[in-house]
Amino acid sequence: MTQRLFALLVLLVVLAACGGAPAAVAPTSAPAAAPTAVPTEPAAAPTEPAAAPEADAFPVTIAHKYGSTTIEAPPERIVTVGLTEQDALLALGITPVGTTEWFGGYPGAIWPWAQDKLSGEAPVVVGDASAVNFEQIAALKPDLILALYSGLTKEQYDLLSQIAPTVAQPAEYVDYGIPWQELTRTVGLAVGKAAEAEALVADVEARLEQVRAEHPEFEGATALVATPYEGIWVYGPEDVRGRFLTSLGFVLPEGLAEITGNEFGGNLSMERVDLLDVDVIVWLDADEAQGPLGGPVYASLPVHTEGREVFLDSYDDPLGGATSFVSVLSLPFLLDGLVPQLAAAIDGDPATAASAAP
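^ thats the sequence. predicted structure below, dont judge the formating
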């Protein structure tokens, strides 16, 4: 049994006890173990000082799944319980004091695309996607806790709120389903930098529109992100990966929403493997498949025989990680690396296959 699969099994046991959705699949197919929560060497200071919070930005009240939270003053010690909020904070010139490890094992849970935004010491990692470490969080004495890209329960929210004002995931999206734009704007509101956050969102959306214009072949083509978890796990229209594809002009296959329902994704039965026969498919961590990838029927589908596949590794390749992270900082990195592969795969010419199967 690989270390990744062992970590996944442990995580599923924990989640089953809590009655939660498989957070292992919310992030990717199987998160790695969290690194020891020890600060790293100080990173280089940014060349420009971070902008101050906007005038009259506080107090601010933010609604979420479990009610609303009022932040009375600019927070100075922020802990992220959600799995991607650190990127939005760093983009706004704020280094959190604590972060939650999703996967990757980078110091402070800060991926390469965001590391040049660090100021001072890297954050302390206070836990991983399998559980909330209340003791470590309390030890950091935060004045704000963010849990936007999360599956936080009401009980966990109540406990965190006793430590510091806590902003949970929004009620209008599924758990682990907040769009990157909404996450960035909410973080901006929480730290008094709403206008700066809006400008960051606009810049990345302009880049997405540019890519869409440069690749008319993406418009209306079907696409899907999948991973070999309990057979085949597909990411749906309520997931950041699915939304990333549609932001480039792709459409998700008909019938996908019926499988994923009110969740970010779902398991595809072997009777519905035909749903994988799209114009281009992105496989995350295909080497974790037990047996032939996608099952025996998949091997005969044109998406496979014509090489319209992109294979990414979430653990050893930052590009694979960025495909699941989908943040204001990871998206430019993702566009640079993944768009050429999508373009190579969608042409249907095996000679221009984007990447070799694992």
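DSSP finds twelve helices and twelve strands in the chain.
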